[in-house]
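User: Hi! I'm working on a homework problem where we have to compare a predicted structure to a textbook description. Could you give me the structure for the chain below?
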Amino acid sequence: MSQPAPHRTAPPGQAGAGHGETCLPPEQLSSPQTLSAAGPGLECDAFCKEKILQRVLRNVNSQLLVVRPDLNMAAFEDVTDQEMKSGKGMHFNIHYYKTTTPSAGMPVAFSVQVEDKSYYMCCEEECGKMIVRFREGEVPKEIPGESNVIFFKKTFTSCSSRAFKFEYSLEQGMFLAFEEEGCLRKLILKKLSREDEVDETMKISF
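Assistant: Happy to help. Predicted structure tokens:
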């Protein structure tokens, strides 16, 4: 993996649950092998899980994010009411963390249940490009340092307080987004060209 950008931290304190959100108590979970802790003398965060919300993730077109582990893919799709009820690969657990040092953005991680297996979202480098992957396993309750499963939740714009964007914790300006590939809108990581840019492909609502 390429050398991460200077690490930024997220604010301490609790994140209030919004109206209609389902909160679950955190469980003691094993740590994914892809986690990386900071080395000696490197100042970094320590993340501790605070709560879990169960939500579906929608893009600007109101399509739902669906994870398909058999195809090694996640994409935003039009979903029928019947498919929505089955919930296969589309009902996410959003894991909120408290952190030891202050900054902008709420640290979160994502996991999803597909049949009888749990998968967590992470970012990995392949062929010189950062991509989003879903790996089988559980999101850890505590993270001692830097991690490729943590994203910073930010309000999309001041005029869209109910929509959000999610910045990858190890690379400033890199956000979850979608990219059209044929008839698919695949989940990707995308770099903002400037800080004040508004990119609708990064807009995610619950």
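For your comparison, note the following. Confidence is low (pLDDT under 50) at residues 1-44. Residues 81-86 form the longest helix (6 residues). Good luck with the assignment!
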